[in-house]
Design brief:
With 336 residues, the chain is mostly helical. It contains 14 helices and 2 strands, in the order ααααβαβααααααααα. The termini are far apart.
Length: 336
């Protein structure tokens, strides 16, 4: 029974949050890796694209709520999500036409694209804060929990309960749907196969009749959609903070690079590796040890390897180690 209590405690405060957080990082990393696989540059504006998409979802949600429209026990943000995706897609395509297409025409080096993405990042950041302001915004109406810790305790008879928030369940389910849909698109559709061919060998793909501008168009649409979904899922699970998405850029890029930059399956794997690493290292294990160790041997401290303030440092350390040991990541990167 003591072991079960320890497992329940770990599940409630480590496993479930890590699954939700890993799902959000996986969606973000997929957008980054798609752009890298097609355009061959690291899009530093991706985090702020997530912020813009989430902001658009919030604005549409406010409008729907003002009209008395909701989804009952589900967050109204799910109903507003397609409109947020549309707004972000238009922003991404407009940015590509105004900024990136010029450099593609000049066949600029990847570092030029990277610098341009930094300028775009600052523009997106200012635009988002100008429209919605710098204040935090709460997200998510409807039912708060799928089941509560008290309900789990009553059902299991354990001292420790497991609670599953609605937003955590939605995040995992939405991620599974998005990942399955993306892999189906890349492997089963003509457009997806064209993207893979263009990513593997650009010159051969062009000789085969692949339209490069169409491939770029689809890549931006997919990246913008994934950014909006990832940002919205993160905002629902936590809260919308305009400044937090810039900070998320490090774990998102770490996820993409750890998995293999340019590899979609690597982006998903890397997201969960980073999420579980961050939460495992910053988790306080004292309560868990009280169940599995004799009372006199339980440490007085929190038994925490790192404070939560250093969570993003874990991503940085993992990123550095991977770049030193295996630069191509878990899965060989640079291909869609």
């Amino acid at each position: 029974m003591e072991i079960l209590n320890a497992l329940a405690l770990l599940s409630n405060y480590l496993v479930i949050p890590a699954l939700a957080y890993g799902s959000q990082l996986a969606l973000g990393a997929l957008g980054v890796t798609l752009i890298y696989g097609i355009l061959r540059f690291s899009n530093f504006a991706h985090g702020e694209m997530m912020a813009f998409g989430t902001m658009a979802v919030i604005l549409v949600t406010w409008f729907l709520q003002a009209q008395g429209i909701s989804l009952g026990f589900l967050p109204t943000e799910l109903l507003a999500l397609p409109f947020g995706i549309l707004a972000t897609v238009l922003l991404a395509l407009g940015t590509d036409r105004i900024v990136y297409r010029f450099h593609r025409g000049k066949k600029s080096q990847p570092v030029i694209f990277l610098i341009a993405s930094l300028a775009v990042m600052f523009f997106y950041s200012g635009l988002t804060r100008f429209i919605i302001g710098p204040a935090d915004r709460s997200m998510g109406d409807g039912a708060r929990f799928i089941f509560t810790a008290r309900e789990f305790k009553e059902w299991s008879g354990l001292d420790e309960g497991i609670a599953l928030r609605t937003t955590q369940g939605i995040t995992v389910v939405v991620t599974l749907i998005c990942v399955a849909a993306l892999f189906w698109f890349l492997n089963r559709t003509r457009a997806g196969k064209s993207m893979r061919a263009y990513s593997d060998n650009e010159e051969l793909a062009l000789l085969s009749g692949v339209n490069p501008e169409r491939v770029v168009l689809i890549a931006w649409i997919l990246a913008a959609a994934l950014a909006t979904i990832a940002g919205t899922m993160y905002g629902l699970d936590k809260t919308f903070k305009p400044f937090i998405y810039l900070q998320l850029l490090l774990p998102i890029f770490a996820s993409a690079i750890v998995g293999g930059l340019g590899s979609p399956i690597g982006a998903v794997a890397g997201g969960f590796v980073i999420a579980f690493s961050e939460i495992t290292v910053t988790f306080a294990y004292k309560r868990v040890l009280t169940y599995i160790m004799p009372g006199d041997n339980v440490p007085d401290g929190l038994v925490q390897l790192l404070s939560t303030e250093y969570k993003f440092a874990v991503s940085f350390v993992i990123l550095v180690v991977v770049l030193l040991v295996r630069p191509t990541g878990i899965f060989k990167g640079q291909s869609v």
